[in-house]
Structure to design on (572 residues):
């Protein structure tokens, strides 16, 4: 694996747009080419070498791993249209992390801001800390959000998680704020912690797996009783490293809705460790 | 050539290319997984009239199945892509989906897809749910005991059908005993199936018949009852012949299976077994030839 390290050499205190960083996916690791990648800092175009010290640690034919050191919440659009390769962020990430991401892996050792995985279609994002609002959601004015891939948030998520989400998996290790899964079209969301108000408003299809009984909008979802969901075995096996401590539970109370929109979405309430 | 007083005839088995697919069937426990598998692989002994040849490849541990439940791996062979797809879909719908707690998954990857859940999902009448993880899509179809989970597609791969050897003996009892010994050892192997009842066939066939509409008829050269009235390959002391037919993924798998089966008979020294032979059609049926004496070297 080729290893590229990008270490910040100036203090980033305005928005830094890293949209063009995905050009690394399409060429060999060439220091000059990487230096010339155009970025946008505080609404001005700059070269990548003006912000980062570039170091190619190893160079091999197969996949690349890019490490960004010293990032903060101003680093926008990290992993924009990312493909195949691995991107490791040693620090926080700004808004639009993994925006329109198509494949590969993005790991964030800190937190991320709003619109994580917005319009994502493939690949995997792992965030060690918290995320802001609109994770897996549609962009402003659009009606389809995350459309594939996997997002694993090890701690808490903000408002509007999975808004207009259509496909893919989001796993949240901690709590989620209000308006989670609004206009949910399809896909799977697992929430291990508590959930705020207005869960699954206008939910059409898809699956929410949770322990949080009090968050379920009982008037808008039909209680279908206790059910053993065999499918969860496959889900569990596929995501066993991401799911957290309660992964072995496969007995659920199933709720179907949202009845406001004749939806056939399902909320699976884990029978053990209910909150 | 003779080993332990059993002659190995200087002949070969003739096999032909087929299309095949591996499927994994799981259930709540091995008993119900077997019920589903047994039903799926029923009436699948020969492509002459069954449309396919199918059998259990191996029993799978929980850790080896996609859903972590007990299961079996099966192989299904057919002569054409179209027939294979038809048989897989029909048998899944009628034999696996109907079996309590069952689920079905593809057991191999390949370029050519065979519809599983992609067609069966319509049984859900709009209440079916699709889930996609990585490059695999699964369908959850509501049924009366919960959900029938199946993968979107199975995949076709190339296989070989018709590997075989014949066991010739002085009585039916001794030949059956020898077959049982061989089948037991061959069932331990991966990548092959023995599609006939108990792995053994007594009605070995030749291509064609004196009746116009029949594509296969009894292999009279090996029928003890006819040896005085036709050109027979049987000596006077041979009173019974049985055949073990092997379908496998590659010619290597079939030759290994033949070697293991024959060697187990030779090792066991089953009383009354006189010779081991093989069925062929003079090289006209298929390109894969398995020479007995070469295999046993």
């Amino acid at each position: 694996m080729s290893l590229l390290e990008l270490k910040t050499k100036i203090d980033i205190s305005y928005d830094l747009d890293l949209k063009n960083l995905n050009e690394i996916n399409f060429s060999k690791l060439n220091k000059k080419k990487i230096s010339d990648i155009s970025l946008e800092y505080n609404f001005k175009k700059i070269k990548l070498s003006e912000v980062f010290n570039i170091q190619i640690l190893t160079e091999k034919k197969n996949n690349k791993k890019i490490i960004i050191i010293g990032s903060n919440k101003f680093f926008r659009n990290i992993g924009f249209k990312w493909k195949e390769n691995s991107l490791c962020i040693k620090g926080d990430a700004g808004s639009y992390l993994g925006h329109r991401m198509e494949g590969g892996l993005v790991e964030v050792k800190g937190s991320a801001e709003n619109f994580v995985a917005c319009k994502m279609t493939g690949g995997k994002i792992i965030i060690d800390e918290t995320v802001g609002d609109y994770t897996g959601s549609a962009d402003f004015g659009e009606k389809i959000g995350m459309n594939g891939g996997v997002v694993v948030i090890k701690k808490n998520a903000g408002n509007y998680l999975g808004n207009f989400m259509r496909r893919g998996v989001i796993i949240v290790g901690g709590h989620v704020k209000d308006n989670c899964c609004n206009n949910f079209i399809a896909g799977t969301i697992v929430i291990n912690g508590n959930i705020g108000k207005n869960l699954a408003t206008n939910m059409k299809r898809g699956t929410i797996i949770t322990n949080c009984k009090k968050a379920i909008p009982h008037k808008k979802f039909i209680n279908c009783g206790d059910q053993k969901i065999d499918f969860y075995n496959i889900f569990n096996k596929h995501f066993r490293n991401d799911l957290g401590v309660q992964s072995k539970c496969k007995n659920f109370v199933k709720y179907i809705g949202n009845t406001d929109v004749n939806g056939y979405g399902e909320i699976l309430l884990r029978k053990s460790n209910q909150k | 050539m003779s080993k332990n007083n059993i002659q190995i005839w200087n002949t070969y088995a003739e096999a032909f290319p087929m299309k095949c697919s591996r499927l994994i069937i799981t259930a709540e426990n091995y008993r119900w997984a077997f019920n589903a598998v047994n039903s799926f692989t029923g009436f699948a002994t020969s492509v002459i009239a069954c449309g396919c040849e199918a059998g259990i490849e191996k029993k799978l541990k929980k850790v080896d199945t996609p859903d972590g439940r007990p299961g079996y791996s099966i192989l299904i062979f057919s002569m054409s892509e179209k027939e294979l797809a038809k048989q897989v879909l029909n048998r899944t719908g009628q034999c696996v989906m109907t079996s309590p707690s069952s689920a079905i998954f593809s057991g191999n990857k390949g370029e050519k897809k065979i519809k599983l859940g992609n067609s069966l999902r319509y049984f859900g009448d709009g209440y079916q749910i699709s889930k996609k993880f990585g490059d695999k899509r699964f369908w959850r179809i509501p049924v009366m005991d919960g959900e029938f989970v199946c993968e979107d597609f199975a995949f076709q791969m190339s296989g070989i059908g018709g590997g075989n050897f014949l066991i010739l003996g002085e009585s039916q009892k001794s030949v059956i005993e020898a077959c049982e010994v061989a089948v037991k050892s061959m069932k331990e192997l991966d990548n092959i199936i023995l599609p006939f009842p108990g792995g053994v066939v007594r009605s070995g066939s030749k291509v064609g018949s004196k009746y116009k509409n029949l594509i296969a008829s009894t292999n009279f050269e090996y029928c003890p009852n006819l040896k005085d009235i036709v050109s027979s390959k049987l000596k006077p002391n041979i009173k019974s012949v049985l055949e073990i037919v092997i379908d496998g993924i590659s010619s290597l798998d079939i030759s290994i299976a033949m070697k293991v089966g024959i060697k187990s008979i030779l090792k066991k020294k089953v009383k009354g077994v006189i010779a081991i032979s093989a069925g062929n059609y003079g090289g006209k049926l298929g390109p894969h030839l398995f020479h007995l004496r070469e295999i046993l070297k």
User: Anything to note?
Assistant: Chain B touches chain A at residues 66-69, 101, 103, 126-127, 129-134, 138, 140, 146-147, 149 (CB under 8 Å).
